[in-house]
Amino acid sequence: MAVKEMPSSLDVVNFNLTSMKCPDLLFYDLTTDSRLESLNFSINNECQIPATSFEYTTSIYTGNDNISRISWLGQSYCVVDNNKENIHIARLLIDEDMDDTYFIGDRRILTLPEGFAITAFNFFGNDGYDVDFLLTQNGKEKDRRTIKEGELYKYNIVDINSSNQIENCTLRFYLETLFAGMYSLAKINSTRMISSNVLVINNNESFSFMLDRSKISWFGQPYYVIDHDSTGLTAARLLIDDSIDHCHRLKKGDTLFLPDGFAITILETYPPITTRRSPTKRFNYGNFSFLLTQYGNEIDSRTVNSSECYEYRLDLNGNGKNDNWVLKFNAGDIFSDDSIAINSLKLISPNVLRIENVNEMNIVHEGYKTNIENDGMTLTVVRDNNTKNIPFSRDETVSFMDNWFSVRVNSASDAVAVSSAVIISDTYELVGAVEYPYSGYADVNLTSKENPAILYYDLENAQGHETLNFSINNNYYSPYNDVPYKIPEDSFVYTTRIYPTRDHNALKIAWLGEPYMVIEHNSSTVIINKFLIDERWNDCYQLSMDNPLNLPYGFNLIASINNSNIVWFSLIKDGLEVYNTTAGDGDLFQYKEDLNSNGINDNLVLSFNVKSLNKSKGSVVINSLGMISPESLMISDGDVHMLAGYIININNAGSTIEVRIKENYDEHIHNDIILKEDNLIGILNNTFFIRINGAVEVVKLLNTTDTQQYEHELIKRRVNSIKTKMPDIMKNDTNRTDGTTPDVPPDVPGFGLFMCIMILLIVRKMF
């Protein structure tokens, strides 16, 4: 999110983070231009955060709907009540306007967060254009009523006495239109939903952030915290974390196979019975029965109604009660073709991890104090002891405030990075920069150092050399009424350059937001290979004959120990051994290939340190794992095919790469990038996306699905290339539903605007 370099001459480095500078860490509301969150702290030359420098501030503001809102830890909340002594807030789960619509069919279910669901039935009753809505939570009825076309539905579960807020309904939407025919439909819009869980923040109170039921990262893996106390915590590996939008549709007899040997088999389906309008408003739910197995053994069987929430529970914390969920999902629609839908599927491993000393995780969840100021309108969080600084070691990451953000100083103590510590599931837009246009014009000038969420900054080597510059202009005549914005072709330029590693043993380069190793370079060609794994000394793996390490590109690493305390390593690729060697404690493993076609295997592909051996267990611990792709990417001077619609230039004796929009030499044709409101345009082979909505946003789109599975964390970029297939690249997501348009030569009009300009780097985050 932010980086700072620390010259030896400085005693302290100050971080003053705002919604404009770090829009993905700190929330900003485009509709009201509210940017009221800030986070300030310093790091001194003793690698400490002085307690007096730490301050988080946020303020209440009024939305366009006249509802009081507040940003809290980068998320949008509704203010249920506030005064000088406390603030009651509830998470804003859905916040849509009249253009955002849903269609609900007769006896069909619209699934909502927190186990809520809406079912529509009894269309077109005695009063004409009306319909019955049934609201349930985890299958239990909460509300039912008849709504006429054009009416507003409201439901309130939040009960705050003496609330000074006029409207704090948990759920509200407008019934826009009813459609009659073979299938009746209800069209609703302007859906808004706030959480039924209210957070109360008191003035001048010591504040601790609880890790229970939160997500953490442990050695690069996502974990779900079951419980924690002063002695440590109990956590389980998070295997599946689907959202309500991720649906699995299964037919009778189908089996859904899940990690850790779990499987769901559908046994019977019973669709809802269609009846005439009932004066008693009774509703017949459909249901289905299923079998849950693990490694082929039955562990549960159940019959559930549509809209119910199923949970399989075990005793994971040793309290003698089966009160910890292992697998859960929401039951959705049941169809007449013997198929059913389930969503919000979540699964954790039943094999828990006990971390005895929570301090080893470097999560500072205690020692905060709240202050409510400005007549209950402003909230600040500071450290409760101004004499107790927060220390951390070099090359160590420390997380703060509910694991919301983390700070890391590199091993040389000359650069610091602040990043989001939140585990991302499903699809998530990581906002990297914001720029506001004035009088219809904006200059976007991005750099690795100022915008590390979109362009790559090498923290360990304190180097960042990517830039992306372009202008936005609406002061021109357009033959299209709905395309008033453009990016002039001569304003667009992307640059990057080669730099040495700190030890000068290798050359690196950032290419389209990701790190690469430079294999060869000259004035006409640059050959690079992408870094797949680049870990530090404290990233460890335990290997044995029965526990190999799965690596990208079909590689597997197997280890076994002989009687002489020597470990034998075998590297397998696609089932065939490609390399083997022996090593002892402290040795360096290196596997090389010929990547520049010189006939010599002199290019390092895989390396790691042998940290320790355990002969009794037959296992070995390795660390500092590094791996580059065995497939090279060749970038040529003057190439116009790799990035369709662009030309690549290699400058400065092969040390700098520049990409511009390819000129059209017909004076009557310009390759300006045409933009429309409320849509996305792909640039640089869909590596980035742009959209307009009153400000310039730069984001990455993180996704955890449809990725190659390894045991460690990687990020995969997915790009379309029209004529030349780019190594290491996965195709663009064909399942996207966010209005993106495929990357095309920029003289083709299309793609849009939405009152801000967004650049989306599509990546895949996997675990």
Describe the protein's architecture and organization.
There is one protein chain. The strands form 13 sheets. Strands 42, 43, 44, 45, 46, 51, 52, 53 and 54 form a 9-stranded antiparallel sheet that branches. Strands 6, 7, 8, 9, 10, 15, 16 and 17 form an 8-stranded antiparallel sheet that branches. It is built from no helices and 62 strands. The relative contact order is 0.10. It has 767 residues and is mainly beta. The protein is globular and about 85 Å long. It is 0% helix and 52% strand.
Which SSEs are present, and which pair or pack?
Layout: E1 2-5, E2 12-18, E3 38-44, E4 48-49, E5 55-59, E6 61-62, E7 68-72, E8 75-82, E9 86-95, E10 101-105, E11 109-111, E12 116-121, E13 130-137, E14 140-148, E15 152-155, E16 171-179, E17 185-202, E18 206-207, E19 215-218, E20 221-229, E21 232-241, E22 247-251, E23 255-257, E24 262-270, E25 287-294, E26 297-305, E27 309-314, E28 324-334, E29 339-355, E30 363-364, E31 368-373, E32 378-383, E33 390-391, E34 396-400, E35 405-409, E36 415-420, E37 428-435, E38 441-447, E39 467-473, E40 485-487, E41 493-497, E42 499-500, E43 507-511, E44 514-521, E45 525-534, E46 540-543, E47 549-550, E48 555-561, E49 567-573, E50 576-583, E51 588-593, E52 603-614, E53 619-628, E54 633-636, E55 646-651, E56 656-661, E57 673-675, E58 681-683, E59 688-690, E60 693-702, E61 714-717, E62 755-766
Parallel strand pairs: 30-34, 60-62
Antiparallel strand pairs: 1-36, 2-3, 3-5, 4-33, 5-32, 6-7, 7-8, 8-9, 9-17, 10-17, 11-12, 12-13, 13-14, 15-16, 16-17, 18-31, 19-20, 20-21, 21-29, 22-29, 23-24, 24-25, 25-26, 27-28, 28-29, 31-32, 34-35, 35-36, 37-60, 38-39, 39-41, 40-57, 41-56, 42-43, 43-44, 44-45, 45-53, 45-54, 46-53, 47-48, ...
